[in-house]
Amino acid sequence: MGQAQMKPEAENGIAVHTVTVHPEKDLLQKQDQLAWKMAEVAADPVAVDEDVTEMIVNRIIDNASVAVASLNRGPVTTARAQAIDHPRTGKRGATVFGLPSSQQFSAEWAAWANGTAVRELDYHDTFLAADYSHPADNIPPILAVAQQCARSGEEMIRGMATGYELHIDLVKAICLHKHKIDHIAHLAPAAAAGIGTMMGLDTDTIYQSIQQALHVSCTTRQSRKGQISSWKAFAPAHAGKLAIEAVDRCMRGEGAPSPIYEGEDSVIAWMLDGPEAEYHVPLPGKGIPKRAILESYTKEHSAEYQSQALIDLAARMGEKISNWDEVKDILIHTSHHTHYVIGTGANDPQKMDPKASRETLDHSIMYIFAVALQDGSWHHVKSYAPERAQREDTVKLWRKIRTVEDPEWTKRYHATDPNVKAFGGKVEITMNDGSKIVDELGVANAHPFGAKPFKREDYVRKFMTLTEGIVDAGEQKRFLDLVQRLPKLSADDLLGLNVEIPEKELKAGKKGLF
């Protein structure tokens, strides 16, 4: 097999690193390994562009919004209780959403608690390409380390730009889900690299951290199949915690299994495409700004990203139906992913079960489309309530919905041209009298190419909506004023990037081992 190489792309400063499996006898030099190339990107002191900084602020606001809205949900109370049992008494630490900023905890446990809160509602940003991702899952571990290690706002921004860049670059090139490996295997090495950038670590230390983080974070996608459990919320937080621990060990001089991507017993050789694999990972060249965050998109609706455009489409189509009993059949033509992961192609009976968990309903486009069609909207709590899921007319309508993979929508899903790339579908609603209502939508309204792209005011509105009745007005304003000054924040200021609520409003988690 040929040596790893860098191939320049079209005059944009991006180079493609070709990754193949190498037998041990090849003695592949670390400078030719993907993890090293990623570490070089992380160690490059290139400045962060202003529009990237603006988007990082948006995503921190977005994360805080969805985290606060989930603070009293079961997995979040558990994760917070575990963090509370790991205080940094007498030492600088990291803050936990909901708790006073004066209370600080070990960074890896704060990242665990905050990462779980961010992920619980499945309501923050997304990037979809060869694989799936929620790149804002990088924010909790990088922020926690920034707080504990007294980094500035500017240093944290640089770390977050790296985390987003490398996470998205991996997702563009390496498919995990085809081999039933969960997508957090791209998150952990990216978060480790982002921490390395923020801490100003040398290339070799970041290289070892990336490899360790990947090695310990490969898990299966059973977490997203069948009766989906609360682990779906914990999984990215676990990856962030593992990334922090990996960086800590490597800063102390420890190494990692190597080459983690290319070795004959590596992740690629045994968990992904195997010994004959060849992947092409785009990475910014030296001195090229890290801009991948601008390719990601947030959610207006609290549901799996492939449902975003279909929720908007359902709301539009529902206006044309006055009697749900007159609907005979609903067929959704969509991409391979939507059909096989959240559609009828998944062959999961739980996706049609009115008593299924919120996590399962979130991954059922049949349920989501039925409710959005009837209600003309989507709510992060009300749309998943048991009484809503079990409503007789909804169940009847839900079971008339099926999906089919359409090659054209699959092609658009995988398109590299952002003007063509789409995550929606075409819907045919057949009525009992034989008439049809047909419509389609490629991207969600909130998508950068959608009807109403999300801007700063939309992120602020989402924050105000999701924290209403939970956070008092003074605290809402304090947080928003502070985060929007992020590039100028000192290390002490960063401790305020937390949203506090009255202690009596927070549910306590159950006691465990700690």
Describe the structure concisely for a colleague:
This protein is an alpha+beta fold and 514 residues long.
3D architecture notes:
The chain is α+β, with helices and mostly antiparallel strands. The chain has two domains: 290 residues, 2-methylcitrate dehydratase PrpD (Orthogonal Bundle); 137 residues, 60s Ribosomal Protein L30, Chain: A (2-Layer Sandwich), CATH 3.30.1330.120. Strand 3 and strand 4 form a beta hairpin. The longest helix has 21 residues. It is globular, with a radius of gyration of 23 Å. The N and C termini lie far apart (50 Å).
Helix-strand blueprint:
Layout: E1 6-8, E2 14-20, H1 34-43, H2 50-69, H3 74-84, H4 107-120, E3 127-128, E4 132-133, H5 139-148, H6 153-173, H7 184-199, H8 203-216, H9 231-251, H10 267-271, E5 278-284, H11 308-318, E6 327-334, H12 336-342, H13 358-361, H14 365-375, H15 386-389, H16 392-398, E7 401-405, H17 407-414, E8 425-431, E9 436-441, H18 456-467, H19 473-483, H20 491-494
Parallel strand pairs: 6-7
Antiparallel strand pairs: 1-2, 2-5, 3-4, 6-8, 8-9
Helix pairs in contact: 1-7, 1-8, 2-4, 2-18, 3-4, 4-5, 4-9, 5-6, 5-7, 5-9, 6-7, 7-8, 7-9, 8-9, 11-14, 14-16
